[in-house]
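Ops channel
N.P.: pipeline sanity check, posting one input/output pair.
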């Protein structure tokens, strides 16, 4: 009886909500369920107490996570989309960034975190949590400053995977750009690929 009453109380508010309000209500219920789930993994670089470089958008891990794309630029033709998605990736937090190639086959569709402030001649460590659609080419992760500081061209895992590493800024680097390609340039691509990700970067 108590269980029935619980479901009735959950459903009743929906009758007075608009479609958009119902969607937001469902998102909040899902978020609350995730918060209370005991199996969620913590921030993958939680042991590093230095300041987080990626904050204020869906790529961020909590507490800097926000449902949005602030500081993220879509690079590519109109067919390429970058969106914030409500996804259970097994980690604390609710959202990920999704880069979708749409119908585009040229290989340049990506998101960029541009002009992220860094210190020169300094080593940083990153963890890119991602999954790839597994169709066609693999994705790419690149860190660019005055030169290419880090590049991985084999983002092809179809289940949530942590890619971790380090990069060192040059003597003249005060900002860097992080690029996440849906499929890397000039590789085989069929225009149906996507990649979802979260990213943490901290000084080592």
């Amino acid at each position: 009886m108590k269980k029935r009453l619980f479901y009735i109380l959950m459903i009743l508010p929906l009758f007075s909500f608009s479609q958009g309000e119902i969607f937001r209500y469902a998102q909040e219920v899902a978020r609350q369920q995730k918060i209370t789930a005991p199996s969620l993994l913590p921030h993958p670089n939680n042991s590093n107490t230095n300041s987080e470089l990626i904050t204020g958008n869906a790529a961020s891990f909590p507490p800097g996570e926000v449902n949005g794309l602030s500081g993220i630029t879509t690079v590519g033709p109109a067919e390429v989309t970058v969106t914030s998605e409500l996804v259970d990736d097994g980690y604390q937090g609710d959202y990920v960034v999704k880069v979708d190639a749409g119908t585009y086959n040229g290989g340049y569709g990506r998101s960029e975190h541009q002009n992220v402030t860094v210190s020169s001649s300094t080593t940083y460590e990153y963890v890119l949590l991602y999954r790839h659609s597994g169709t066609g080419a693999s994705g790419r992760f690149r860190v660019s400053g005055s030169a290419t500081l880090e590049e991985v061209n084999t983002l092809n895992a179809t289940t949530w995977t942590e890619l971790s590493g380090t990069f060192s800024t040059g003597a003249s680097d005060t900002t860097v750009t992080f690029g996440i390609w849906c499929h890397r340039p000039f590789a085989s691509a069929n225009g149906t690929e996507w990649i979802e990700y979260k990213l943490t970067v901290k000084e080592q």
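N.P.: looks fine end to end. The chain has two domains: 2-36, 72-203.
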